[in-house]
Amino acid sequence: MEVIILKDPLEVSKLAAAHVVHQVQQKPMSCLGLATGSTPKNMYELLCQYYEQGKVDFSRVTSFNLDEYVGLASHHPASYGSYMEENLFRFINIRKENCHIPNGMAEDVPKECQSYEEKIQKAGGIDLQILGIGTDGHIAFNEPSSSLSSRTRLKTLTEQTRNDNRHFFAEEEEVPVHVITMGVGTIMEARKILLLATGEKKADAIAKTVEGPVTAMVPSSILQFHSKVALVIDEAAARLLTRKDYYRWVYMQKPPWQKQIADSFL
Ligand code: GLP
Q1: What's the CA-to-centroid distance between 158 and ligand 1, angstroms?
Q2: What is the DSSP letter of 98?
Q3: Residues of the chain with pLDDT under 70
Q4: pLDDT of res. 255
Q5: Domain extents in the chain
Q6: pTM of the complete model
Q7: What single DSSP character describes residue 174?
Q8: Ligand 1 and 161: CB distance under 6 A
Q9: Residue owning the nearest CA to atom 9 of ligand 1
Q10: For residue 18, what are the contacts with CB-CB under 8 A and spacing of at least 6?
């Protein structure tokens, strides 16, 4: 597991955006796994800028989002469909038909989940998965106690996650209880994973992800079993890691050819 500790959220976003650009430059038909939430917002803003500047072309990219609220239509302001449109899709040249988000309004939820899995398979699997992390260690919407080999399915949110996400909803609105989310097993099949975390609120989840035991009670801890995963985090999110000096040292000692991608954009 690679742990990259950077000064602040902006540096985290820059490095993450650099990885996405590098991925698409290397493989124009890349399949990207995309996340929502506050953390990747700035990365998306940078990707829009890089697209404007002609540094990256998304015309042949396919994307799959991690999750969606059940009961919210894609045009609902708090839906992840709207989030993606407002933060990325409408500003770049990705083709609408290549952007996939679970349908929160599906009448037959199990069928929608099965079909989502099939679409990922048909697209050849995810090349690069961007992840955020919940304060309880959830990835996508896989809450603690999720099966570590789960597939895309219906999940029930914890009160903690509903509270954490309340700020995305209007005051009088309830945060949905149910979601459709890629499973932990689905996420683990991505060829590369980049998990982003910033701020003190994520410090406990990050420490458990990297240095704790692998347990369904901290779904992100399964990432210890992935051979190509990098956690790009800021100082605040790194606060509770006991070996942070070692992780910093590893990053500083990287041979130039390994640092190239990052350095060309930072
Ligand atoms: C939600 C999303 C996750 C995201 C998490 C953290 O639960 N389903 O994919 O990682 O929020 O969000 P934030 O970046 O806003 O802290």
Answers
A1: 13
A2: G
A3: 260-266
A4: 86
A5: 2-258
A6: 0.96
A7: P
A8: yes
A9: 140
A10: 261, 262, 264, 265, 266
